[in-house]
Design brief:
mainly beta, single chain, four-stranded antiparallel sheet, about 120 residues, 10 strands, six-stranded mixed sheet
């Protein structure tokens, strides 16, 4: 069974930084574009950032452009999200998945990011 495990979240002050990690249980994920998504209470899950299979192309939501950087290490089955200049509006549970998300994969537990004013 495939599994995605997110980690690296925490509580930081506005302007701070965090680096999120996503570990994939199966090497087949290296063939897919991967993305980070986030969900705040009462809101729909939204797209944050994506990276193609070899890391040569990235895409970001306008709200995080210039502040967040997505990267991947296929040899380690890992995807990362470096988050700088964090804002309170970045507070959410962050998830990784294929981009677009595969219905067969499901969602992991996510990692909580809380940014205080």
């Amino acid at each position: 069974q495939v599994q995605l495990v997110e980690s690296g979240g925490g509580l930081v002050q506005a302007g701070g930084s965090l680096r999120l990690s996503c570990a994939a249980s199966e090497r087949t994920f290296r063939f897919y574009a991967m993305g980070w998504f986030r969900q705040a209470p009462g809101k729909e899950r939204e797209f944050v950032a994506a990276i193609n299979w070899n890391g040569g192309s990235t895409n970001y939501a306008d709200s995080v452009k210039g502040r967040f950087t997505i990267s991947r290490d296929n040899a380690k089955n890992m995807v990362y999200l470096q988050m700088n200049s964090l804002k309170p509006d970045d507070t959410a549970v962050y998830y990784c998945n294929t981009q677009p998300p595969k219905s067969s994969t499901g969602w992991g537990q996510g990692t909580q990011v809380t940014v205080s004013s």
